[in-house]
């Protein structure tokens, strides 16, 4: 029979059982907070890595485009010189002036 001063529907949380529940709840709360923090940090790292990769890829594309442009300019100069010499009936030798430009 329950004590007359204790409510009938309220369980008793005293003793070792109540202590274990509080410790387990605290551990679950800590695990939940740590997993949320890890997820947030992981997504931030991933976003930062994607941004850095896009920036580096753009820089690489710009550098390669500049190098290709310079190469095509040099080839264009050589072809123009060779074409002009062929039209004049000269030998296929590159002039010293053109060598200094390349």
Task: Describe this entry's structure for a reader.
With about 100 residues, the protein is mainly α. The chain is about 80% helix and about 0% strand. It has 2 helices and no strands. The protein has helices spanning about 15-90, 95-100. The radius of gyration is 39 Å and the shape is rod-shaped.
Shape: rod-shaped
| Overall radius of gyration | 39 Å
- In percent, how helical is the residue content? over 70%
Distance between the termini: 106 Å
Uncertain runs are none
The overall average pLDDT, rounded, is 84
DSSP strand count: 0
Report the order of strands and helices.
Answer: HH
Count of individual helical segments: 2
Class by alpha and beta content? mainly alpha
Instruction: Tell me the fraction of residues in β-strands, as a range.
Output: under 5%
Major β-sheet annotation: none
